Amino acid sequence: MSWLQLDGSHQLYALFGAAFIMGLAKSGIKGLTMLAVPLLALNFGAKASTGLLVPILLAGDILAVIYYRRSANWKYVFRLIPAAVIGVVVAVVVGDWVNERTFQLIVSIVVLLSLGLIIYLERYPLDPKITQNRLPAFIAGLAGGFTTMIGNVGGPVMNVFLLSMRLPKLEFLGTAAYFFLLINIVKFPFHYFIWNTVSARTLLQDLITFPVIAIGFFIGIQIVKRIPEREFRYLVIVVTAVVAVRLLLS
Known about the structure:
The chain has helices at residues 9-26, 33-44, 46-68, 74-97, 100-123, 134-151, 155-164, 169-194, 200-207, 210-226, 229-249. By secondary structure, it is an all-alpha fold. It has one domain (6-249). Helix 2 (33-44) packs antiparallel against helix 3, helix 2 (33-44) packs parallel to helix 11 and helix 3 (46-68) packs antiparallel against helix 8. The longest helix is centred in the last third of the chain and has 26 residues, at 169-194. It is globular and about 50 Å long. It starts with 8 loop residues before the first helix and ends with a helix.
């Protein structure tokens, strides 16, 4: 493992675990990203882990776009992207300003708030009339861009907005796939040039995970077809909450 510059086998296991989880998540199992984020943060550090995860996200995004490429609704992609880019820039400034402990605290809070949003909307779904004008789209894009840059957890915000549009399942997955591919491409240079969380070393570490991402993705496709999503999502929420609290207290 020395050639990968990993600090012990626990980092290797965390890296492969996060890659497998992201493969599952990008196949359409919503909520799993929330588990991968604190898992990497605990083993690599909060800020460093955000850059480490971006190429893994991009690999998953590419698989998702290939698989759901005919199902995207570009109207919603174009409506969300401008505000999301602004959110990314704001997060870059915040992340560059705070120290590691504060950054870890922000990531923990963002994860827990996102979990709270998911739990709330399980019981009280959003009225679709609220999201018909441009302001909710701008707010969703801004919040999604900020949360995806600061902690790679933009999924819940985007899911809330897209689900409120009552999109068919495949259209929802295709739209989300293209949105996150584009926004993760936007994030990459900020991680490389400003935060310095992406480097030749981290890219090499990410490279070995790509087969694991693909395995997770294709297993996830089968899970999406066969397993009730609601019960699975509850399990993810509980496990992620435990890991996020552990990150908050570490």
